[in-house]
Structures are given as C-alpha cells and as structure tokens.
Design a protein that fits this description.
Elements: E1 2-13, E2 16-28, E3 31-34, H1 37-43, E4 52-55, H2 61-70, E5 76-81, E6 87-90, E7 96-104, H3 105-110, E8 114-116, E9 123-126, E10 141-143, E11 153-158, E12 161-167, E13 169-171, E14 176-179, E15 189-194, E16 198-205, E17 215-222, E18 229-232, H4 236-247, E19 252-253, E20 256-257, H5 262-271, H6 281-296, H7 301-318, H8 323-335, H9 338-345, H10 347-382, H11 386-463, H12 465-473, H13 476-506, H14 515-529, H15 535-547, E21 550-554, H16 561-571, H17 588-591, E22 594-598, H18 606-609, E23 611-614, E24 619-622, H19 625-640, E25 647-652, H20 659-662, H21 664-667, E26 678-680, E27 686-688, E28 693-699, H22 710-713, E29 717-720, H23 726-732, H24 748-755, H25 766-780, H26 788-804, H27 814-826, E30 832-834, H28 836-851, H29 855-869, E31 874-876
Parallel strand pairs: 4-7, 9-11, 21-28, 21-29, 22-25, 25-28
Antiparallel strand pairs: 1-2, 1-5, 2-3, 2-4, 5-8, 6-7, 9-17, 10-14, 11-12, 12-15, 13-14, 15-18, 16-17, 19-20, 23-24, 26-27, 30-31
Length: about 900
C-alpha cells in the first residue's frame, strides 16, 4: 500500500460533476518523490488518463456538498491505496472509460484513506509574499496560496524559519482563506522548524498539451530527527509593558509576594509574558536580556529614562510603607556608597538640591517671624482688663431681657391683627361671589334665549327643506358644525373599532418563553429559510430589532435584505395574528402586525409617508392607510396599557428618498422611546408610540439612492449582509417555506426579557474595555467621535450578545465576537475620508482590529480600502 499525492480534476457541469484523482508524487518515509510518466503508467496500467474516478451519488445533496468541501479544481489531496482497492471503471458494454479505475469517495473519506494535505508528515508551504495580513500582529492571518483548501495544514515562511503547522480555514464573508497562529495566546511566540530542519519539495503538473500552463506547489516535510523550536516574536514595546504589568499585578501586598494564595501565584506565573509556563528557558533568558538592553540602551534615552523613572517611582510610592523598600534602598547605598555623591555631582540634581536648600532657608526665616508674632499677640491678650470683660457681660444680660419682653409683645399684636384681617377678607369674598351670581343669572337668560332662537330656526329649516336647501348649504356656521359633527361621529366609530381590536389582541394566547427557548426557536425556524445564517447572525439581528427603534439592512442587490425582514416577521408570528382573531374581512389587514412599505422617490415629508389632516373636510387624508392604521392601533394599545405583541414596519428601498425628510417625526423617538413618545400628524391626530413599535429598513448604495445622513447613522443599527455566492443565490428561489405549525406568536415580553439587559450588566470586562478604549482612541485621530448614544447602545448590545453568542470557526471567544459585531454595526458606518494619509490610517485601524480579535470589523475595513483604491482614494463604508 502506498500513499500518493494527487491533483483533483473536475469535469462536467453542475450537478453531474466528475472528480478524478491523478497521482503525481509518492510519500516514502519523510520524503516526497515525484512520479515519472512511466511510474504513473505502472501504478495505473489500465487507465488511459492515469487517473482514478472518485464516485459519489450526485443526486444526494449531502454527498455533493461533501465533495465540494473536500475537492476543488487542481487542488492536492492524499490518497492511500493499492491496486486491489480500486474497481474497474467500465461502460455497459464492458469497455473501460479513459479513467480506467474508480473508487467510492464517501467510503474512502470515511475510512480516512483520502485526507487533505497536512497528514502523513506532508504540509503545504506558504511563502512570505502569499501572506496578506501581519502574521505576528493579526489574530486572523489571510493567505493567498494557490490551491489551498480549508482543512489543509500549512507552514508559514519567516526569516530562516517555518512557523506551523496551522490549519487553514475559510471565511465566506470575505471569500478568503486564513490561518490563526494565536501568537498572543502563546505569549508572543511561534513554534516550528528552522530551515535546515525541514525538507522542501517542489511539485509541478501540466495537462500535457503544447502550451499548457504549469501548476506548481511547494510542500514541506520535517526531517525525521527534527524537533520543534520556539521563536520569540514579541516586540520591545509589548515586552516592556508586560514587564510592568507583571510587577504591578495583584499577587503582591506591601511589596511581598502573597504566598498564601498559591493558585493565584501559579496562574500569574503561567500567564506571565516574561516567565510564562509555555516559554522555553532560552526564550525566558532572551527576554530578560532584552529587558536589560532596552533599559540600558543609549537609543531613545529620554523615553527610556522617563519610562523607568515613572515605573520605579510608582513602585516606591505604592510600597512606601513596606520594610522591603527600606531594605532595598539601604542595600543599594551600601553596595554603591558613591551613588549619593555621584547623584549630587549631577548638574541637574545639584541645581535641584540648591533650589530646595533656598526654599528651606526661606521657610526657616518665615517660621521665626511667625513665632515672634504669636508671642506678642499672646502677651497683649493677657493684659486685657478683666473688669471690662465683666461689665460687658452684665450689659449683654440686660439686653437679652429687653429682647425677650419685646418679642412677647410683638407675638400678641400679630394674633390680634390676624383676626381683623380675616374678617375683612371674608367680607370682600362675599361681595365678589354676589356679583358673580348676578352675572351668571344674566348669562343664563341670554343662553336660553339664543337656544330657543336656534331651535326655532332649525325647526323652520326642517319644515321647509326644499325652500331652504340652498340657504342651508351656504350657511357657513351650520355647514361647519355639521362637518365637524360628522367627523367626530366617524372618529368615534373608528376609535371604537380600534378599541375592539385592542381587546381581541389582548386575548391572544402567547407562550412565555425563556431567553434560551426563544433563541432556540428563532434559530431553528429562521434556518429553515436561511440555512447559511449562523446562530450568531440570527441572534445579532434579534438584538438589534429589540433594542433599536430603527435597524437598517445594507448590502449588494439580491443578497436577501428584504427577505430576511419578511422571514423575521414570519418567525415572530406577526402575519399569523389575523387568522387568530374573529373580525370582518375588511379589518383583517388592520390586524396584521408586519407592514411593508415601498418607499418612492420624491418623498419629502410625513404627508407622503402617512398622510395629512384636511382642514376642509375635518378628516385625515391617508396616503398610506396601513401606516395610519398601525399608528392609530398602537396609540389605542398604549392608552389601554396593552404592550403584548411587537409591531414591525419595513421601509423597503428606504433611501430612494432622504429618510430624514419623510421619517423626521420618528427621528427623535430613536433617542428616547418611552411613555411620552408621540408623533403629531396634525390637528388632534397625535398618536402615542409604544415600545412595541420598531422599524426596519433596506437600503442600496448606488447613484439612484440618497446617502444616509450622519444624524441618522448615529441613531440606527446598520447590518451589512454578506455577498451571496452563486450556490446561495440559486438556492433563494428554491428555499423552503416555514411550516405553519412551526410558527408561534412571540410576545413582546419574551423578546424584551431575552434581548434587553439590566443596567448593571452593561459593563465590559477589563480586557475588552482596554480593547474598546483603544478603538475609540484610534477613531479620535480622524475626528470620528463615539457619541454617548452609541456608547450606551454598544454596551447594551454586548451585554446580551456576549451571553448567547457561540465561538465561531476561527475559535474566537464569544465576548470578543459580540464586541466585534457591535463595532461593525454601530461605529464603522461613520467612517469616510480620502487621500493616502487616510488610507494609511485605515490600514492601522484594520491592524488594530485584527490584533484584538475583531475579525469582522477588520475585514470590513479592508474591504473599504480595496473599494477606495478603485475609486480614486475615496474611502467610505457605504459603497
């Protein structure tokens, strides 16, 4: 049995795609030997093409996906086989196909005989120029090595060193391959082999016809006696900062190591960047020597001295009461007795000492003068005549007796005057009330007379309808009264209808789901329609919809922006409510709680979005009845205190017109959606907006649309949907429907309990707070401020997402992914600029995101750079 490296050849068209394996090299021990044409013929004598057909059932979706995941055109795989493992690949008449042999790919994969490169001691080599990211700084390092697939094991080329092996992953969001070296987790070290400990083999293949391109691969095999080495890649700045952190850590008290807390001591040792448990002795010694060299280097002496001085002074102040500090200082002076003389001989220190001596002399003189003045004052105080003091005391006692007598007389006078004042006031009130009664009597008589006159006039109009028809029509007073009465009657009937619907909505049974049950339900139901959506993506959308008054979906045309909004409305059961309430057919539309509005170009105000109050007809003219009905219904529910079900309004193609024009009345509600939130549509049409109402919007970014204003971006969640590949796009037309029995009506309480945090939860961990602060500081360099509104929104989002997110395929922790999503959806949409200097800043910002594990944000910034370089150095989030 041999182990062979072969190239995959794909033939045919989807779905009938054939995968053929052509061996080009054999693995023998730790060597790779390329096969000659004669050796290929001897290996597969019955194959005209010298290859093997990997068979599978292309009618089974799982087998097709598995073949696509393991094999791609001109990729290399490893296959362990003998001629006896192969079957004859023949036609119905007994003639062989050109491949000559076949084997079940599913069976060989299950038995482990077909494996990706990275097994049997053979690895792909990734050259320096094929590494896109900063290998020693970024947590996710993108590579552009030809024919590398997810699951392959690779070594990364460094200076006279090969780091690895690392497993290759694939990110659909950027359609790129990556490795995750975890340099920070490994204390800024990489493992691998020096160049002289590894064998390199160059493999090549061409299809054999004249002018055919030649494909080449570089594979590596560590020598049989090679041992992995540890390469230190820590920078000087990180090394010094780590040294300071290790000294200032909490395992010491008063300068002494807390031996009683052994677990904390061991944990600190393991996590230390200087003496960490995973570091080799050579790396530890090297780092200590580098620290000594850094602190004694003449280069950047000012910065070094400032850093060391601040560091040592902080330690001395922190442990000033510790006996260890005194012992250390004494030992320092005893060991270097000339140190104090040398310090005094320093010009700067000598000058400082002179200044202090002058200050001391001045203070001594001032002290003598103050002591003399105090003594003179004391002597004068003793000489005061004691008889004068006694006389003053007697005089004060007499004054106090007079004051008490006068006070008693004043209180008695106040009581007497108060009674008299009350009598006068009562008399005046009586006279005023008498006048008011007379006036009301006269007014009553006048109203009675007017009423009789109106009744008589109305009776005459009724008794002579034909004669008075024209007169009645042009009677302004009567016409106004009748129109107003008719409008009031119609409004009363409409209000009664909304109250009746509100009562029916309140009677709808809704299960109270726990957060875990709700998340499981949403993921399960939504993945029926969107199987490629991860759990994190679904939870993220749910958090934004619940916490934000406006959530905007952005992305390329056809990526599913509108459909994901419809899917969420369906999953929440908002379209199912109409079937659960008994009401007239013409009212069914009013009951649904998911409304889709197609925005038109040219909308300039709420008149276009909702409608306007007509002062002539005394009614509200609706330009969009569904929106008006929604606002009226929600106002009725808010007044009744019924906040049972969510209500979602979709603004499809929202930026065909400027949103801050037609949606301006709702802009301020974004800041403070609460009990007093209202929208004024004109006259008495003022509707309260409850917390159950939320808007979603879809936007496109091209010359036919309006750009979102900074004021709007500061108030909304911007979710960028990934670009679909051809397979995902073709599957949209064949997506499965959510079975009706699977859909449940989700209450607003369940959503609020699951996706709204308590105030004491909205705080980052110390590590993530440091990461967040560095992002904010970097943004300030280009005047991109993080407003308090955005800061609060990010922390509220993170508090929930960090609890329910799961680790992704890059093995990034859930709290870091949560912060990554929040920054990508709330901060990055603010980015925009131009020029080479801004490009440089964007690259630094992308590197900062990547080094902190914010992979999605880093990918978005890189995409901004790529698009900007194609648009004359004009960089913006929205393309």
């Amino acid at each position: 049995m041999g182990i062979y490296i072969g190239i995959i050849e794909k033939k045919g068209y989807d779905p009938t795609v054939f995968f053929n394996f052509k061996p080009i090299a054999e693995i023998q021990s730790t060597q790779v030997i390329q096969l000659t044409a004669q050796e290929q013929e001897a290996l597969l004598p019955e194959s005209e093409k010298r290859n093997i057909c990997f068979t599978y059932n292309w009618n089974v979706d799982d087998e097709r996906r598995r073949m696509d995941a393991n094999f791609s055109e001109k990729s290399l795989v490893l296959f362990e086989f003998t001629l006896e493992d192969l079957q004859s690949h023949s036609k119905a008449n007994g003639d062989r196909y050109q491949t000559g042999y076949k084997v079940s790919a599913m069976k060989m994969l299950d038995e482990g005989k077909i494996r990706p490169v990275g097994n049997f001691g053979v690895y792909f080599a990734v050259r320096k120029n094929e590494v896109v990211s900063d290998f020693t700084n970024d947590t996710i390092v993108e590579i552009e090595s030809p024919c590398v697939l997810a699951g392959n094991q690779v070594f990364i080329e460094m200076d006279d060193f090969w780091a690895g092996p690392y497993e290759v992953g694939y990110r659909e969001y950027t359609s790129s391959y990556y490795v995750k070296p975890q340099i920070k987790e490994h204390k800024y070290t990489v493992s691998g082999y020096s160049s002289n400990q590894i064998k390199q083999y160059s493999l090549s293949y061409s299809e054999g016809y004249w002018g055919a391109p030649e494909t080449q691969w570089l594979v590596l095999c560590p020598k049989q006696d090679a041992t992995p080495e540890q390469l230190d890649v820590i920078s000087d700045s990180v090394l010094v900062e780590s040294f300071k952190d290790s000294i200032e850590s909490g395992i010491t008290a008063n300068g002494l190591v807390k031996i009683d807390d052994v677990p904390a001591l061991l944990k600190h040792y393991e996590e230390s960047e200087i003496m960490g448990a995973i570091l080799t002795d050579e790396t530890r010694r090297s780092r200590l020597n580098r620290l000594v060299n850094i602190m004694s280097s003449e280069e950047d002496v000012d910065d070094t001295l400032r850093t060391i001085t601040d560091f040592i002074c902080d330690l001395l102040v922190k442990y000033q009461d510790s006996p260890n500090v005194d012992k250390w200082l004494q030992a320092l002076v005893e060991k270097h007795p000339q140190l104090l003389d040398q310090l005094q001989s320093s010009q700067a220190i000598s000058k400082h000492i002179t200044e202090l001596e002058d200050k001391l002399e001045t203070l001594t003189t001032q002290r003598g003068e103050l002591e003399k003045e105090i003594e003179e004052t004391r002597q004068r105080a003793v000489s005061i005549d004691q008889q004068a003091i006694e006389a003053k005391k007697r005089e004060m006692l007499e004054r106090e007796e007079e004051y008490e007598a006068l006070s008693a007389r004043i209180e008695a006078s106040k009581k007497l005057l108060g009674v008299v004042g009350d009598i006068d006031d009562l008399q005046k009130k009586y006279e005023n009330l008498s006048k008011e009664v007379d006036h009301l009597g006269i007014h009553k008589s006048y109203l009675t007379s007017e009423t009789n006159s109106l009744e008589l006039q109305f009776q005459q109009l009724i008794s002579r309808p034909h004669e008075k028809m024209v007169e009645l029509a042009f009677d302004g007073f009567m016409a106004s009264k009748m129109l107003r009465a008719a409008a009031e009657w119609e409004n009363e009937q409409t209000n009664n209808q909304y109250v009746e619907l509100t009562d029916k909505v309140a009677s709808i049974p809704t299960p109270n789901k726990t957060p875990e049950e709700l998340i499981e339900y949403l993921c399960r139901v939504i993945q029926i329609r969107r199987p490629n959506y991860s759990k994190n993506a679904i939870i993220s959308i749910a958090i934004c919809l619940t916490q934000g008054f406006l959530t905007v979906f952005s992305g390329d045309p056809g990526c599913g922006k509108t459909s994901i909004c419809n899917i969420f409305g369906e999953a929440l059961g908002l379209n199912k409510i109409a079937d659960m309430i008994e009401c007239p057919a013409d009212s069914k539309e009013m009951v649904g709680r998911y409304v889709a509005v197609s925005v038109e170009r040219g909308w300039t105000s709420k008149r276009d979005f909702v409608g306007y109050y007509n002062p002539l007809s005394k009614t509200f003219d609706k330009s969009n009845r569904r929106i008006y009905d929604a606002l009226h219904q929600l106002d009725t529910e808010k007044q009744a205190g019924i906040l049972k079900l969510p209500y979602i309004i979709l603004l499809d193609e929202a930026n065909l017109s400027p949103m801050e024009y037609y949606w301006s009345d709702f802009m301020n509600i974004c800041d403070d959606l609460g009990p007093h939130s209202k929208v004024n549509l004109g006259e008495d049409y003022v509707f309260g907006v409850p917390e159950t109402l939320h808007f979603v919007a879809t936007i496109n970014n091209d010359h036919t649309t309006e750009t979102l204003s900074p004021r709007l971006i500061d108030r909304a969640w911007i979710i960028t949907l990934p670009q679909l590949n051809l397979r995902d796009y073709s599957s949209l037309g064949n997506e499965a429907n959510i079975p009706a029995e699977e859909v449940e009506v989700i209450s607003w309480k369940s959503l609020r309990d699951a996706f709204t945090p308590a105030k004491d939860e909205c705080f980052f961990t110390p590590e993530l707070q440091k990461c967040y602060d560095s992002i904010v500081a970097k943004l300030r360099e280009k005047k991109f401020t993080v407003s308090p509104r955005i800061d609060i929104a990010i922390k509220r989002y993170w508090a929930i997402a960090s609890k329910y997110f799961e680790m992704d395929d890059t093995k990034t922790a859930a709290p870091t992914i949560a912060l990554d999503y929040a920054i990508a959806q709330r901060i990055l949409p603010k980015i925009g600029g131009n020029g080479e200097e801004f490009e440089k800043w964007l690259k630094e910002f992308s590197s900062l995101c990547s080094s902190n594990g914010l992979n999605t944000s880093a990918a978005i910034v890189k995409d901004i750079i790529e698009r900007g370089n194609q648009q004359m150095k004009y960089y913006q989030f929205f393309c």
